Amino acid sequence: MLPIHVAKFGGTSMANAESIQACVDVVERQENPTLVVVSACAGVTNRLVAISHSHTQTERQRLFDEIVDIHCQAASALPKENAVHHHLAQLHQLLHILVQQAPDALESHQRQKRDELLSFGERCSSRLFAAYWSQTSATNAEVADARSLLVTNNNFGNASPNIDKTREHCADLREQLNQGARVVTQGFIGSSEEGNTTTLGRGGSDYSAAILAAALDAEQLNIWTDVAGIYTTDPRICSDARPLEQISFAEAAELATFGAKVLHPKSLKPAIENGIKVFVGHSRYPEKGGTLILPEPDERPSIRALARRKNQTLLTVNSVDMLHATGFLACLFDILARYDISVDLVTTSEVSIALTLDEEGSQANGLSVLPEAMLEELREFATVTIEQGLSLIAVIGNDIGHFGDISPWVLEAASPVPIRLICQGASRHNLCFLVTDEQAENIIKKLHAKL
Ligand code: ASP
Ligand code: MG
């Protein structure tokens, strides 16, 4: 019996009839038993989010109509269109009830309802995928509701999966897959132990797929997207960026965290912990190959790739009380943790600390990264300076800071632009620095030219 694989298709791969058919063709060519995990059709989750923010009924209705239209268009090339219509109509009807009472996203007790609303994108797209798969192959494809597989806590909007419980819930599915069943499930959504619908944060389908791969003891996770793998840098910045054949888990994790949009940063953790290889390829052009992420790649170049993350905030906290004092860092991080603020980079001097925060955050609730109440708490013992509109550039590779010296190369490429912060030493796999958003592209071009 061949080991199980998980194949995840992103929103652009699910965008329309033609692209869904291409995904089905990809799956049909797989030899291993494969669980399919899908994102919502491109643009649908954004519209659902907009519905949850919108206060006018006409606007909500317009967005709802557009969603229905995307799904109907996507269904239109099915040989037997009717087979999926009653499923879609049922889901649209349920969605419409929520649309008419769209929750106010800012009220925390409404986050549960919002997750229910957001779940419809994947619930509809999984029906579309199963319909195309069933109708263009000899066997029927079923939809498994991810809410009966993926168990999470009840942190609505950014829920954390419970891998042990998910594993228990996946026992039957594993059996079915091994017996040749064709199964499609939804990315992004799960269910709390109480049975409420949850979501894993924007872009969370990769994460879902990785959790399900771990729960099924899968051998490989295939992420099918709209690029043929991971590149040396963003090809929109450098037209000569090259796809990477292989990359290590550690390097890929740094790349995902520091801006490469190909993979959801959290998605690699379950794969790393369970030794599951990850392949990233283009769902439309699978023949172009892709990138394999694995524990030990054949080569370990000192510089593998460059990533950029826009919209960074630099928060500098300065306090003379810190001079020779203990516990200052603990106090600062305690405040940040209480406000659920995730910090990326940190540098310190004797009396001040500079840290970077991601302005977009990963929370589906879209809360500010700098809540006023938190700033007030900080100002009680320190001076706080905020700089926005910065870009983080990450140089990703191996044994950085241990062999050779990449610093002159980085400084030369950045010169004469001021570097607002620089971090190296915590990881052998990255060197990161901050510059203004406007200057970042040019610096990446200069760095990439020597790669
Ligand atoms: N549909 C969800 C989103 O757009 C999840 C995903 O695509 O991964 O955020
Ligand atoms: Mg997506």
From TrEMBL:
Presence of keyword Cytoplasm: no
Reactions it catalyzes: L-aspartate + ATP = 4-phospho-L-aspartate + ADP
BP GO terms, sorted: homoserine biosynthetic process; lysine biosynthetic process via diaminopimelate; threonine biosynthetic process
Keyword annotations: Amino-acid biosynthesis, ATP-binding, Kinase, Nucleotide-binding, Transferase
Pathway(s) where this gene product acts: Amino-acid biosynthesis; L-methionine biosynthesis via de novo pathway; L-homoserine from L-aspartate: step 1/3; Amino-acid biosynthesis; L-lysine biosynthesis via DAP pathway; (S)-tetrahydrodipicolinate from L-aspartate: step 1/4; Amino-acid biosynthesis; L-threonine biosynthesis; L-threonine from L-aspartate: step 1/5
Keyword Nucleotide-binding among record annotations: yes
Residues annotated to bind substrate: 45, 122
Gene Ontology MF terms in the entry: aspartate kinase activity; ATP binding
EC assignment: 2.7.2.4
Pfam families with a match to the protein in the record: AA_kinase (PF00696), ACT_9 (PF22468)
Domain called Aspartokinase ACT: residue spans: 412-450
GO cellular component terms attached to this protein's record: cytosol
Residues the record lists as binding ATP: 8-11, 225-226, 231, 236, 261-262
Superkingdom as given in the UniProt entry: Bacteria
Domain Aspartate/glutamate/uridylate kinase, residue spans: 6-281
Protein family per UniProt: Belongs to the aspartokinase family.
NCBIfam families: asp_kinases, PRK09084.1
Name of the protein: Aspartokinase
Lineage: Bacteria, Pseudomonadati, Pseudomonadota, Gammaproteobacteria, Alteromonadales
